[in-house]
Amino acid sequence: AMSKWREEVIEPGLRVQYKVERTLGSTVSKFQHVDLVDLEPFGRSLVIDGLMQSCRSDEFVYHECLVHPAMLLHPNPKSVYIGGGGEGSTAREVLRHKTVERCVMVDIDEDVVGFCRTHLEENHAAFADKRLELVIDDAKAWLERSDSKFDVIIMDLDDPLEGGPCYQLYTTEFYSMLKTKMNPGATLVTQSGQSGIKQHHLVFSPINCTLRSVFPNVVPYNQAVYSFMDEWGWNLALTE
């Protein structure tokens, strides 16, 4: 039998192919198409709209980089907000911190959250943790309506491609609103897309500039994530 290969565009003129051992499940929500596949190089992998989302072999690299710097920079993080994070891995890393009393995770896609909750064994404990409040809603709308304030805010959303569903979550207006939802001394972190030598100008650098117009202290950082075939970036903002 012919092996099945799936192809992904890394940048214009550069594509990579992964060998698929088997497809374990798929679901189509009103927002996106999700597949759970076993890939020969990366093991169990979550693919959303044909793009690599996370692989068991190295998702911890992405999620630890996203969560722990912001958590550790806060002396006593009790309340945490996660925007997006449907697969549950971000919440898993947050809930490792014993100081956390309340972790609110708001993801718009109930089907994807349910799919991940069922299929990703490594996140079962996080989804069952009584400190986790899982809300199916728009991450921005929920925060705007809420009178809660948080010690740490973690934005784990898709890249802000012009006109895409997450575009308005990366604007000066949005970050200014976030600032009003932060307790004194709070930290904010956002995933910031590819940060390698060629692609950083698309998302990583613009997010850094936008955050610097709102917050006094912004720290960009990056790390190679092997299954993403590039360096990945995050931006951390401090209120003081």
TrEMBL record:
The keyword Transferase applies. It catalyses: S-adenosyl 3-(methylsulfanyl)propylamine + spermidine = thermospermine + S-methyl-5'-thioadenosine + H(+). InterPro entries: PABS, SAM-dependent_MTases_sf, Spermi_synthase, Spermidine_synt_N, Spermidine_synt_N_sf. It comes from the Eukaryota. The keyword Transferase applies. Residues 3-239 form the PABS domain. GO terms for molecular function: thermospermine synthase activity. PROSITE patterns: PABS_2 (PS51006). GO terms for biological process: polyamine biosynthetic process. It is an enzyme of class 2 (transferase). Belongs to the spermidine/spermine synthase family. This is thermospermine synthase.
